[in-house]
Amino acid sequence: MTGKQPTTLYIIGNGFDLHHKLDTWYSTFGLFLRDEHSNIYDYFLKYFGFPDLNEDDPESLKDPLWSQFEANLATLNIDEVLDEHAEYSANPASEDFSDGDWDTIAFYVSQIRDDLTIKMLDLFKEFILKVEYPDESGLNILNIDRNAIFFNFNYSKSLEHYYKIPQSQILYIHNRAESNDKLILGHGMDPKSFDREEAKPPAGLSEEDLERWTDVQEDAFDYSLERGRDELIQYFSKSFKATSQLIQKNQSFFNSLKPIKKVYCLGHSLADVDKEYFEEILRKISNKVVWIVSYHNPNEKEVRRNRLNELGIKNRQIVLVRMNELLPKFWNKLKLNLRIAFATTRRTIGI
User: How far apart are alpha carbons 288 and 156 in whole angstroms?
Assistant: First the structure.
């Protein structure tokens, strides 16, 4: 990279890897689990409601539960897990009962929790490392500014492999598979929202009714079952993507964005799980920046525009493109569209 500060930022999502024919679909990860780690695959079917995948049925591979895998990591059905393991709940009335029985169900469900967090992340890294990189000759290589900086949501090395972008110009915000770092994959919901509220008596009970209500609650309380629930509740914090902490950790990158004049967002759906990153980028760059954002299907075009509008980006700042419009043969047409966008932006907000 030259000594001049870059004025172009690329935000890279999974659609970028798919454009280069890397099989990084979450449904392919599901098939990897099904074939090599069926117990974890079965957990997703039983406890999250994910559909069974069938490579001969393209519709099953497009199911939103798999395609929006990260967001749906927040849908673990704790009651389903506990019900299936109810046989391990302590029974003090049994002749074989011992104090260790209080923790038996907690032990079993904590193994499931760890499989769905620690082990699942290790397997996801294994999956990414097995992804094959097709030969460049059969690909539509894009016209990309190699002196730009890159905010990369992907775990692969596609930017380095196909475009020879130095790692020093790329922020792998969720870490790089070919490093020793743990990959970051998770839902975006506040773990506290999954805490079960303590039962409260109905208003207006007499002292006698309140005592009766308390007795019923105590009789219904199952200590060993609640121990299991406490272990499972930890799943939501262990599978949470702590975006605000990652932003703080990489604040020097965000602070370097002031000179940016163009943002290319390629292959990213602008999903809510990553909203905080976009908000932080917008805080650091000028409100005069032009956003060139890719879409895949025609019905995604307005969805992209609406999400950009929700972030505070005006229509006059937005240029929506198909990824192939960044091919060298279409470059002059794209440059014309960008000149129009820049001219409009200057006129309306006074660049």
Answer: 32
Query: Would residue 3 count as lying in a domain?
Result: no
**pLDDT value for 152:** 98
Judged by phi (left if over 0) then psi (alpha if -120 to 50, else beta), residue 247 lies in: alpha
Segments forming the whole domain that contains residue 74: 31-132+187-238
Domain boundary among 218, 238, 258: 238
248-298 confidence digits (pLDDT tens): 999 999 999 999 999 999 999 998 889 999 999 999 999 989 999 999 999
268 is a domain residue: yes
At 187 the three-state DSSP class reads: strand
What is the Cα–Cα distance from 170 to 270, expressed in whole angstroms? 19
Percentage with pLDDT > 90 across the chain: 70
